[in-house]
Structure formats: structure tokens, C-alpha cells
Design a protein that fits this description.
The protein is α/β, with parallel strands linked by helices. It is built from 8 helices and 9 strands. The strands form 2 sheets. Strands 5-6-7-3-8-9 form a 6-stranded mixed beta sheet, sandwiched between helices. A 3-stranded antiparallel beta sheet has the order 2-1-4, with helices on one face. The relative contact order is 0.18. Bound molecules: adenosine-5'-triphosphate and magnesium ion. The site of magnesium ion has 3 residues, from helix 1.
Length: 243
């Protein structure tokens, strides 16, 4: 079903997360609209992973509200993918089976998803023996196979070599699809990803949220984030990261 564009897929209002004495997030207002590609940037410990976990419902806010359509499919890609000690194909198929797809159909869909990420040839290889980049792609295939409306990715390319990084980035761009979906193509996947790589943010994001000590101190269209005036801390961060 097409969603009206203005209707947010996820809406956070005044969200705070506390871990004991640590205020991981404070006063976050964030609406994620269909088709957006939101990059979360900020220093280590600024709250990016925590925010992704809140968006995925893995962490409940200690204050504020999170609204999400309960029927909406979401998938999250963690920085270090968890691979079960079985074939790549079974790793993907199991995720589908857990969602209720019968096993034979799940195996077939898993193979199609691996083909999509260019890993058909290693479908039967034990996933634990795959390289880090290959595992990341299997994890992406697994997330994509679930046909999520929203895909959350925590530093999806942080541990990859330049070649694998380009491949995973290309895949993310493909999965997100064109801004205006072609006929029959279905709506693009909405993405929220964290990254320390500002080049990647420029290439993939439509919008950038800059976090500092748990607060979203800038939330701008990607062009404005890189070209417009920024709060001082965000400006220094961008300057430091770009060098
Ligand atoms: N499970 C937890 N228990 C206690 N403190 C936590 C927990 N998870 C995160 N924190 C703290 O919350 C703050 C935000 O952490 P978070 O992992 O969200 O940052 P981040 O922006 O993802 O950092 P990085 O760039 O290093 O991945 C940090 O101070 C961190 O130490
Ligand atoms: Mg993190």
C-alpha cells in the first residue's frame, strides 16, 4: 500500500535513554518519512547506536514517545553481523522461516536474496567461514529478504576493506532505489544508518542528523549539512573528519 508521503514511518518525541548515570539520548524529536535515507553522525559515544536501537524497538525510552506502525516491517543490520554455524543460504532462510515462511519457500527466497548481493556462488558455504565483507553482505541479504519498509544499519561498512565497502554501499543504494519509484517497482526502502565516513554520508544520505552527547544538534538535508552553516560543534566535527 502506498503511504501518504507526509505520514512518518517512525516518530520520536522527546525521547531520552538513560543507562544508569549515562544519558545516552536526550530530548530527541525525529520523524522518519517514507523513502528517506537518514545518516546518523557524531563522535564515539554520541548515541548513534542507541538511537538505532530505539528506532528498532530494542531499547525502550526512559522518557518521551516512540510511535511506529505495528504492522510495519523493519530490519536492522548490526555492525558485527551474527552468523549461525550453517550455510549462508540457511542463515537467510532461517530469518524468513522465523517470520512464518515455510522452509522450502524460505530456502528459495534466501537463494534469490543471495543472488541479489552477488553471493549465489557461496550460498552453501558455512557462513562462519566467510570473510568479513561477505558476512556483511549475507547480513544485508538477510535483512533485505525480509522486505522491510525500514532498514536500520549500524556502521554497515566500518570493518570492511575499500572494495567490500564499495560493494556494500552500492547495494545499499540499490536497495534504497530511486527517490521516485518506477511503476511496479514498489516503494523504496527507507533507511537510517550510522556512519563515521562522511564521504559515504554524502553519497548515500538524503538527510543528516548530527548527534552530540545524546542530543540531535543538527538535522538537515544532506546538501545543507555539507554546504550550509552548522552549529559550531558540528562544523568542527565535519572539518575534523574530512581533515
Ligand atoms: N548497554 C549500555 N549500558 C551502559 N551504557 C551504555 C550502553 N549502551 C550505550 N551506553 C552508553 O551510551 C552512550 C551512547 O552510546 P552509543 O553506543 O549509542 O554511541 P555511538 O554514537 O553509537 O558510539 P560509537 O561511534 O562508538 O559506535 C555512551 O556513553 C555509551 O557508553
Ligand atoms: Mg555505535
Amino acid at each position: 500500500m502506498a503511504q501518504p508521503l507526509a505520514h512518518p514511518l517512525i516518530a520520536l518525541q522527546g525521547v531520552a535513554v538513560r543507562y544508569g548515570r549515562v544519558q545516552a539520548l536526550a530530548d530527541i524529536d525525529l520523524h522518519i518519512a517514507p523513502g528517506e535515507r537518514v545518516a546518523l553522525v557524531g563522535a564515539n559515544g554520541s548515541g548513534k547506536s542507541t538511537l538505532l536501537r530505539v528506532l528498532h524497538g530494542l531499547v525502550g525510552p526512559s522518557a518521551g514517545q516512540v510511535r511506529r506502525d505495528a504492522a510495519q516491517r523493519q530490519a536492522m543490520l548490526f555492525q558485527r553481523p551474527h552468523m549461525l554455524r550453517t550455510s549462508a543460504q540457511n542463515n537467510v532462510a532461517l530469518a524468513l522461516w522465523l517470520r512464518g515462511t515455510p522452509w522450502r519457500a524460505a530456502r528459495a527466497e534466501a537463494l534469490a536474496a543471495l543472488r541479489r548481493v552477488g553471493l549465489e556462488a557461496i550460498a552453501l558455504q558455512n557462513a562462519r567461514t566467510l570473510s568479513g565483507g561477505q558476512q556483511q553482505r549475507v547480513a544485508l541479504a538477510r535483512a533485505w529478504a525480509l522486505r522491510p519498509a525500514v532498514l536500520l544499519l549500524d556502521e554497515p561498512t566500518a570493518s570492511l576493506d575499500p572494495h567490500a565497502k564499495r560493494e556494500v554501499e552500492g547495494l545499499m543504494a540499490d536497495l534504497a532505489g530511486p527517490a521516485e519509484p518506477a511503476d511496479g517497482g514498489g516503494p523504496a526502502v527507507t533507511m537510517v544508518f550510522s556512519s563515521h565516513n562522511l564521504g559515504q554520508v554524502k553519497r548515500l544520505a538524503s538527510r543528516v542528523v548530527y548527534l552530540e552527547q545524546g542530543r540531535a544538534v543538527a538535522d538537515l538535508p544532506v546538501h545543507d549539512f555539507f554546504n550550509g552553516p552548522l552549529p559550531e560543534a558540528a562544523r568542527l566535527f565535519v572539518k575534523g573528519e574530512i581533515g
